[in-house]
Write a structure and sequence with these properties.
The protein is of the alpha/beta class and 476 residues long. It is built from 15 helices and 14 strands. It has an 8-stranded parallel barrel, surrounded by 5 helices. Strands 6-8 form a two-stranded parallel ribbon.
C-alpha cells in the first residue's frame, strides 16, 4: 500500500451539525425547529418516525437540542481546538430557523446571518474551509404545522429563498455546500429526516416519495442558484451510505440486497444523473405511488451536483425474509446482523472493507468526485483520574477506515476529503444520548443535561493531529 498516497490537497477535517451542537435554541431570533421537539427517552422514536398526531414541547420531557454542547456560545474555543489538530475543512450546518425563524418570511433574520458570518470567518482565520449543509435534519417547525413540511410543494420556494440568502450572505466565506443531509433517511425516519407527520390511513409511501420529489427539485434548483451566484461554488448531495450485502448467495437474497441498495441510491441517481432512474417506474407501481410533477420539474432536475458526499458507519445485510423480528433495532435503516464482522455497543457493524466497497460502488455508478463527510465510532468514553481519555478503540476504528479510503484511492476513486463525524462530542441523532460519543474532543455533558460543558482532548485528538500532519501516512 506504500505506493498509494492521499492527494496533496486532500481535505482532512471533521463534522458536526447545528441541531446537535449549537444549543441556544431560541437565542438570536431563532425559531423552533423539528429537532427541538424530539425528546430524549421512550417517546423519541415515535416522534422521529412521524407516528404522533402533533408535536410540541412538553414540560415533562427533556430535549437535548435546546442546549446541546453550547457550540453557539463556544464556537471560538472549539474552532481553535480543531485548528490545533490541523483541520483543513470543517463540516457544519446552518440552522434554517436562525436565518428564517418561521421559514416562510420574505426577509431574513440579520442576527442569524451575523452568527454564521462570524463562525465561517473564524474558520477562515485558521485556514479551515467550511463545508456547509443547508438542511441537516432541521426544518422550521412552523413549516411543519402550517404546510405539512415537504409533502407541500410550497416548500420548494421557501427553501430556494433560504438557500439564495445563504449563497449571497456567505459568498467568499463558503464554497463547499451540501443541500440535504442523508436525504435517503426520510424513507426511514420521516419526521427527523423531513418533518413528515402521517394522517390515519394514508399511504405513507406516497407521502414520502412525494416529499422526496419536492426535495429533489429543491436540491437541483438551489444547485443552479449556487452556480449562478458564484461559479466557484461546489455543491454536493449527501447519502447515508453503506452497501447492503446479500445475507446468502440465494438468488432471492441477492435480489433483496439490490432492491435495498436502489432504495437508498434512488435519491443520488436523481441528484447526480439529473433524471429519475428507469427502475423507479416499477417501484412506484408496486407501492401504488403516483408522484405529482409539474411542467418544468424534469428540466430543473438536470442541474446535477458537482460531487457526491456520503456517510459511512457500517455495511448492512438483506435477505428475502427480512422482517421486524429479525432486523437490528440499532439503526433506523434496518439490517440483518452480519456474522462475519464485529459490532459497536450500539449494534452498528464495524466493516472497513465495506467502506472501500461503498466508495468503489459510488464512483462506478456516478463518475463524480466523492467526499466522505461522516464516519466514526459511537462509544462510551471514560475520563481517567488524571483527565486522560484513552479511546484506543476509536483510533483503531478510524485507522482501519482511513486505510480503506487509501485503497479506494488506489482503485482510482477521486476522494476530495474526510470529515469524521462528531469531531467534538455532541448529541447523538439516533438516540439523543451524550453517552454515545464520537469526538476527538470530550464534552462534559451527560444524557440528562448535567455537566460543566468543559472540553478535554482525548488520546485520539493527538493521533488525528499526526494523521493530518503526515497527510494520512502516519497511522500508528
Amino acid at each position: 500500500m506504500s505506493d498509494i498516497s492521499f492527494p496533496a490537497d486532500f481535505l482532512w477535517g471533521g463534522a458536526i451539525a447545528a441541531n446537535q451542537a449549537e444549543g441556544a435554541y431560541l437565542e438570536g431570533g431563532k425559531g423552533l425547529t423539528t429537532v427541538d421537539v424530539i425528546p430524549h427517552g421512550k417517546h423519541r422514536m415515535a416522534v422521529k418516525l412521524g407516528l404522533v398526531d402533533k408535536v410540541g414541547i412538553a414540560e415533562d420531557e427533556y430535549y437535548p437540542s435546546h442546549q446541546a454542547i453550547d457550540f453557539y456560545h463556544r464556537y471560538k474555543e472549539d474552532i481553535a481546538l480543531l485548528a490545533e489538530m490541523g483541520f483543513k475543512v470543517f463540516r457544519t450546518s446552518i440552522a434554517w430557523s436562525r436565518i428564517y425563524p418561521n421559514g416562510d418570511e420574505t426577509t431574513p433574520n440579520q442576527e442569524g446571518i451575523r452568527f454564521y458570518q462570524d463562525l465561517f470567518s473564524e474558520c477562515k482565520k485558521y485556514g479551515i474551509e467550511p463545508l456547509v449543509t443547508l438542511c441537516h435534519f432541521d426544518v422550521p417547525l412552523h413549516l411543519v404545522n402550517q404546510y405539512g413540511s415537504w409533502r407541500n410543494r410550497k416548500m420548494i420556494g421557501f427553501f430556494e429563498r433560504y438557500a439564495r440568502t445563504c449563497f449571497t450572505e456567505f459568498n467568499g466565506l463558503v464554497k463547499y455546500w451540501l443541500t440535504f443531509n442523508e436525504i435517503n433517511i426520510l424513507l426511514h425516519s420521516p419526521f427527523s429526516g423531513a418533518g413528515l407527520l402521517f394522517k390515519e390511513g394514508e399511504n405513507k409511501e406516497q407521502v414520502k416519495y412525494q416529499a422526496a420529489h419536492h426535495e429533489l427539485v429543491a436540491s437541483a434548483s438551489v444547485t443552479r442558484i449556487a452556480h449562478e451566484i458564484n461559479p466557484a461554488n461546489q455543491v454536493g448531495c449527501m447519502l447515508a451510505g453503506g452497501n447492503f450485502y446479500p445475507y446468502s448467495c440465494k438468488p432471492e437474497d441477492v435480489w433483496a440486497a439490490l432492491e435495498k441498495d436502489r432504495e437508498n441510491l434512488f435519491f443520488i441517481d436523481v441528484q447526480a444523473r439529473g433524471a429519475y432512474p428507469a427502475y423507479a417506474a416499477r417501484m412506484f407501481a408496486d407501492k401504488q405511488i403516483v408522484v405529482q410533477m409539474e411542467a418544468g420539474d424534469r428540466e430543473i432536475l438536470t442541474n446535477t451536483v458537482d460531487f457526491v458526499s456520503f456517510s459511512y458507519y457500517a455495511s448492512r445485510c438483506a435477505s428475502a425474509d427480512m422482517n421486524e423480528g429479525n432486523t437490528s433495532a440499532a439503526n433506523v435503516v434496518k439490517s440483518l446482523k452480519n456474522p462475519w464482522i464485529n459490532a459497536s455497543e450500539w449494534g452498528w457493524g464495524i466493516d472497513p472493507l465495506g467502506l472501500r466497497i461503498a466508495i468503489n460502488t459510488l464512483y462506478d455508478r456516478y463518475q463524480k468526485p466523492l467526499f466522505l463527510v461522516e464516519n466514526g465510532l459511537g462509544a462510551r468514553d471514560v475520563v481517567g483520574e488524571d483527565g486522560d481519555i484513552a479511546d484506543d478503540y476509536r483510533i483503531d476504528y478510524l485507522r482501519e477506515h482511513i486505510k480503506a479510503m487509501k485503497q479506494a484511492i488506489g482503485d482510482g476513486a477521486p476522494l476530495l476529503g474526510y470529515t469524521p463525524w462528531g469531531c467534538i462530542d455532541l448529541v447523538a441523532a439516533s438516540t439523543g444520548e451524550m453517552a454515545k460519543r464520537y469526538g476527538f474532543i470530550y464534552v462534559d455533558r451527560d444524557d440528562a443535561g448535567g455537566g460543566t460543558l468543559n472540553r478535554l482532548r482525548k488520546k485520539s485528538f493527538y493521533w488525528y493531529q499526526k494523521v493530518i500532519a503526515s497527510n494520512g501516512e502516519q497511522l500508528d
